[in-house]
Amino acid sequence: QVQLEESGGGSVQAGGSLRLSCLDSGINRVCVGWFRQSPGKEREAVAVIHDDGSTSYADSVQGRFTISKNYGKNTLYLQMNSLKPEDTARYYCAVDSGGFGGGTSYGDCNFDYWGQGIQVTVSS
Questions:
Q1: Could you tell me the sign of the dihedral formed by the alpha carbons of 105, 111, 112, 114, in that order?
Q2: Long-range contacts, stretch 47-51, CB < 8 angstroms, 24+ apart
Q3: What is the pLDDT of residue 63?
Q4: H or E, element range at 4
């Protein structure tokens, strides 16, 4: 049973920073990433680490957010700086376990396991 446990969310004023963490119970992931969804909007990919180690970011967060992974701690991070009110959303950690079928496709990734999500609220 794959478990992904997010932490680090909360409320912050515009211009502030937060760091999200995601503890992964498994290993040997193809891709790992962060997604977000706000009320009335579709879920969007925020940042992804691909199988070859490259990273990709949504245009809206490029230069402000950084995704990283500590392989020794099996923990994925999302450092969020210069936060804006439009960053307000529920953020989800997701992994591509390399399994077959189902999941959400993103480029060469297929995210088949998801965390419960954690709320980030940015006030103006």
A1: negative
A2: 47/78, 48/106, 48/107, 48/109, 49/76, 50/107, 50/108, 50/109, 51/96, 51/108, 51/109
A3: 98
A4: strand 4-7
